[in-house]
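Standup, Tuesday
Yesterday: got the pipeline producing structure tokens again.
Today: sanity-check two examples.
Blockers: none.

Example 1:
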Amino acid sequence: MPFLAQLPARLWFSLWACGLTLLSGTLLYTVHPMLPGTIAGLLTGVPMSLFTSVLFAAALLLSASFNQSRLFFMLFGAALPWATTAIPALATHFPAELGVRLLDLLPLNLCLISWLGGRGLFTRYSLLIWSFLAIEVGAVMTLASPLGLPLASMLNRLDQPLPLTLPPALTAPLYLWIYAICGSLLLLIALMRKRPTEGISLSILAAAWISRASSLPGDPELYWLAPPLLGIIALMFEAYSIAFIDALTGIPGRRALEDAGRQLGRRYLVAMADVDHFKKFNDTYGHDVGDQVLKMVASRLRSVSAGGRAYRYGGEEFTLLFRHADQPRALAELERLRLLIEHSEFALRADNRPPKAKGKPQRGSGKARQPATVKVTVSMGLATRTPAQKTLAETLKKADQALYKAKQNGRNRIECA
């Protein structure tokens, strides 16, 4: 199964933030006493909560600006228990038990946010999250009053082991079981979604577990620095991916090609590749099949060697940029890719497409059965940068002319400018 084949990579991709949280907190605890006197004095002169507050504020602002509502709610939900214990001005005005009990409820909050949080900051789903967090904080703040005594009695049971006969190794407070179960659910969600920001939930859970159980040495504040910082880093990766990576094929897009063009030297080669008869795929089998064709071609072009890199130029056109190869080597590599695509079996899906309007080709109508597989080929044009071409755009124009020549000469071939 494809998911099982990708599981190891997905696992590391999902656990990155959790691992960095534990590593960074431990390193800060270890390195801090070894710093020179002036640096150590500067760090000890400024409250650590100030650094964490700035990071939380920056991460929340960026996640809201980037419309990453799930990450925003995760960080906001983490900031509530942290702020009530770490910021002196808040700690003096709230019950001492408030932060502890919010830490107990944080795993459940993270699961709720992972389920509903990715649908905007001000929608009916986000209103449910805002309401839940507000009710939760209000209910926990009544713990010291007669009204909150039943809730306090129930939450106090979280510090007690499960009322079951278990081996000594499994005897742990109930809140640790909640952390373990919710952590497993969050890891499963991160594995399924495979996005950098999803790992932040595990980073928050790691910092909260350390604060709640004091399981690792050092000030828990050192570990709370990681979630907002890693959230900012994840947002930067998301922004880069949106700007430079083609969403459909997963390879760099035209903006990345233009950026690479500003860093080229005087010698390079450019190839333009175009899927043959691509409009026919869309008209006959539908745009979904056309998208799958583009993904397949991109996956083959991604394997380019000889110092080349593949980009999606637009539509069904791709660009291959060779920085350090000569023409014979680049031509041999293009021929290898052309044959690789030609000999790749592209299986069509079984369901039929609805017919198009009258006078246009039918999309998967019942009149003709779709074949089990279809042949995909590409035509390519290769151009070498010469002193006459001062920019990448001019060399691309030459490669495009060679591509047009390949189309005229029968397709599924390579021509040089």
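Example 2:
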Amino acid sequence: MGEVGGFPAIGGARDTNTASQQKEGFMTAPIPAQKAPFKVSVEAGKKYFWCACGRSKKQPFCDGSHSGTGLSPVAYEASATKDVFFCGCKATGRQPLCDGSHAKL
């Protein structure tokens, strides 16, 4: 199975780091939460913390599940009250917002 953007091309994401690498503090690859963005209504002036690791049960937002992965959530402060599209595949080049990278996975 090949990789696209650091993620397995087919069959969902896998953590490719060995247990010894994780124990030694090597960064763990993010896991795509879904192959589509999350549409979220944000409020002007409010800060949101996007899950960068894909392990959160509160997607697209962080719940602390990244602990020990070497990954950290990305802060987003809404400049206006509007709908935005947070990345669900975790492969975007515009973290935390979707840039269409999911279409290539």
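Quick observation on example 2: DSSP finds one helix and six strands in the chain. The beta strands are 3-4, 7-8, 38-42, 47-50, 74-77, 82-86.
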